Amino acid sequence: GVGGALGARFAALVERLPITLHGLSLSLGGVMPLDENLLDDIASLMQRHGITHYSEHLSYSTDDGHLYDLMPLAYDEATVAHVAERIDRVQQRLGRRVAVENVSYYAAPWQAMREADFINAVLDAADCALLLDVNNIHVNAINHRYDAREFLMSMPSSRVAGYHIAGHYDEADDLKIDTHGAAVKDDVWALLDVAYARH
After folding, report:
1. Cβ(125)–Cβ(81) under 8 Å?
2. CA nearest 46: which of 3, 94, 9?
3. Which CA distances in Å does 195 have to 65, 149, 162, 167?
4. What is the pLDDT of residue 2?
5. For a tag on the chain, would you pick the N or C end, based on fewer CB atoms within 10 A?
6. Tens of pLDDT along 47-85?
7. What band does 199 get if pLDDT is binned at 50, 70 and 90?
8. Residues 132, 199: Cα–Cα separation, whole Å
9. Distance separating alpha carbons of residues 138 and 33, to the nearest angstrom
10. Over the stretch 136-167, which tens digit does the pLDDT of each residue have?
11. Distance of CA 123 to CAs 9, 33, 91, Å?
12. In the predicted model, what is the mean pLDDT of residues 3-20?
């Protein structure tokens, strides 16, 4: 909906470079109805500028309003079905396969499935792509004590639409915070090398 000088600058940018859209607000795992107005705006923006790639976080971010955080989901079969149905609605409205991003999380209640199994089940049920956040794998592996490379190898490379890396804050040896506010660490670069070699 941005017009004027900013809209013109964005249109000029799209003409020169490929653009991908990455969302924070569709709340794919939420219980409130999907924001159909936002979905229509995304579809309109993509159509107007010929943008073909859209990704969103595999989390929820709304209740009665925006929570301004990416909240973790329950890793169980009911949530797989719920999220897959919402992703399917988004894909139908946008007329294309979208990608979901694995998120960092700090509490892990209601885990009937391992995180990797949950993500794979969602990808299969929704027939969607994956935006693989390599930093989030590293952060979660430290915080929840699992092997980052094993997790990475369990992600289906055929569904990877792109990679995301960012910096994190070292609160302690066993607690990393995904801040996007620091330089990318060597461990994350090494993990990206492994991911890229598989693709």
Report:
1. yes
2. 94
3. 36, 9, 10, 17
4. 80
5. N
6. 999 999 999 999 998 887 777 778 889 999 999 999 999
7. confident
8. 11
9. 32
10. 999 999 999 999 999 999 999 999 999 999 99
11. 35, 21, 13
12. 93
Tokens of 107: 């509490």
On whether the CB atoms of residues 134 and 185 are closer than 8 A, the answer is no
Nearest to 69 by CA among 99, 34, 116, 104: 104
Q: What per-residue confidence (pLDDT) applies to 110?
A: 82
Chain position carrying tokens 């993990």: 191
Name the average pLDDT for the chain: 93
Angle among Cα 175, 167, 197 to the nearest 5 degrees reads: 105
DSSP structure string for 152-194: HHHS-GGGEEEEE----EEEETTEEE--S-SPPPHHHHHHHHH
In the chain, where does DSSP find H-type helix?
4-16, 36-49, 77-94, 115-126, 134-144, 148-154, 186-198
Q: Is 182 exposed, middle or buried (0-12, 13-18, 19+ CB in 10 A)?
A: middle
At position 133, the amino acid (one-letter code) is: D
pTM for the whole structure: 0.93
Residues in the chain: 199
User: What are the angstrom distances between the C-alpha of 50 and each of 78, 81, 161?
Assistant: 35, 31, 18
Q: Roughly what angle, to the nearest 10 degrees, separates helices 134-144 and 186-198?
A: 120
Token pair recorded at residue 34? 């999907």
